[in-house]
Amino acid sequence: MYMPRNNRVNCRSLVFLNLSMMLASIFKSFGFVDIYVWIGNNSAKLGHMYAAASTGPNSLVSVTSILGGVSDNTGSGIAHRSVLKTGLNIILACSIPKNSPMLETQAEKILIQKLISLGYTKSGLGGTS
To answer: In degrees to the nearest 10, what's the CA dihedral of 83, 35, 108, 125?
Structure first.
């Protein structure tokens, strides 16, 4: 795979009690960053995959299912809220059970905290959130 010289890739694995997370970021020229996230619960399955991005000046976010058939609210909700809170475009794969709101909340909280602590939010990259 060709990658220009000024791109950097960072990858982190996070494990919490019953939750596993893989976070990869690709820094591109001009301060742009792509975020790829996998969240799992006691399973190494990829799960449904979503692309979420800010789509307008009024903080609108679009989310689409790109793998896994019919979308569920768990992964698409985490992706949607993550974009709202960080201002980043996110590709998220999620294999959390559908009817686990506490687990979903925990996963989202950990993801947002990690993105902010690593400085991956738009405001941390010199943009606006």
So the answer is: -60
